[in-house]
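User: I'm writing a short report section on ligand binding and want a predicted complex to refer to. Could you take this sequence and glycyl-adenosine-5'-phosphate and write out the structure as tokens? A short remark afterwards would be nice.
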Amino acid sequence: MTQQSEIFKKVISHAKEYGFIFPSSEIYDGLSAVYDYGQNGAVLKNNIRQYWWKAMVQLNENIVGIDASILMHPTTWKASGHVDAFNDPLIDNKDSKKRYRADVLVEDYVAKIDGKIEKEIVKASKRFGDAFDKEAFINTNTRVKDYQEKANAILKRLGKSLEAGNLEDVKALIEELEIACPESGSRNWTDVKQFNLMFGTKLGASADSAMDLYLRPETAQGIFVNFLNVQKSGRMKLPFGIAQTGKAFRNEIVARQFIFRMREFEQMEMQFFIQPGTQKEWYEKWKEKRLNWHLSLGMGSENYRFHDHEKLAHYADAASDIEFKFPFGFKELEGIHSRTDFDLKSHEEFAGKKLQYFDHEKNENYVPYVVETSIGLDRMFLAIFSNSLQEETLEDGSTRTVLKLPKILAPTKLAVFPLIKKDGLPEIAREIVSQLKWDMDVAYDEKDAVGRRYRRQDALGTPYCITVDHQTLEDQTVTLRERDSMKQERIAIDQLSDLLKEKLDVKHFLKQL
Ligand code: GAP
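Assistant: Sure. The structure tokens for the complex follow:
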């Protein structure tokens, strides 16, 4: 097992063991690519959602938030292009009867080549020790260069064939590379076909009159169909944005990688309506603003990069992903798309209603252009959670598992312990909890030795712990211990509230935007 998959396995088991994420309906052996958030996961997810909402809605006068429904009139998805174009190329293995995404089979093949490159690097770094220059090795070692060239050529051909809709060539590529079914080892493949990712459902009780609906595959369309309602009722002037968070559903063929690719997930999207012709400028601005939002959480600028799309979706004239370094490599975390006037124009056409803005300065009506920012909440959760989970070797040689979550997002901000369960210490600790719980999520814990209680809170990501001891009885001070440095200091009980509120103030993070 590679080091990367080892780390990822730890992320998944830690998330379950500490009440962050459970497989859905686990007592029935779970449901593939569907997950439930546990008692700590639900709070962390909510905190991430709020951090996004504050940055997008609360801090921008010209952005408002809505909450549109999951079920929408089915014509919405005709107009948006999802009925005709929201497809993945799939292939079945005739022997195992297993279904795969054809592009993912090829990408997995390329990932194996990348794995071979990684092995060569590890071998060489062991051989050369401190003198090892990774960059120079990659650029000069012939075996590594051959692997890289092969991988690049495969990806280039795959991209070209998909773009041209040449599914025969995708199948030919799979056959030429002798890719076998991961289940059965068989190379007996069907042709590659397009598969629509939307989940269907029905509205209405009687079978004859029931209407076929879809569960929304993105939240964005709920914003487009409400564009005029919001603009008129809010007297909004261009440029302005409409934001929302909510569930989206996609019948993903390849659904692995834990909460990275789910069938039911949550999006946080914002459509920014602008004057036609200004889209380039706003697209660049939103790319920068969104990257700054990520950087404000302090998870290391080296873990982010932009990936500008060459192959554009049917609605876009420019698109870029913010990629994050997940345990399985750099992958898309958020998309910034310049969507032109495609969606509003298409809804005008299908609904037969005008969706235009009257520009008082220009004295004319037009359909605004849109720049969209779209991030998966669950994917953001995974980025934060996997980046925060660390194993440290302490000075005494012992190890500790610590979840170094950005403090403002931690599900529990403070844990309060009485040193022992007598001498009036639990009563004082409980009194501190009852005072501070109005301002933050506080936990009380009196089980086990204090050292073990610290470790438990470290694993949950709790940034601060307070211990009430016998000195507290004399001078009304407690020990305040900080998660990352493990430093301890004495603090007067009556100063705790102000001190913690200051340390955990979201404002300090958001001010970096
Ligand atoms: N409205 C544009 C849109 O939906 P997208 O690139 O398909 O664009 C946006 O999705 C974001 O939603 C992605 O960057 C990702 O974070 C998240 N996302 C998409 N599919 C997902 C899935 N199956 N599971 C989890 N998150 C997903």
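A remark for your report: The chain has a mean pLDDT of 94. The chain has three domains: 47-78+197-389, 87-195, 412-510.
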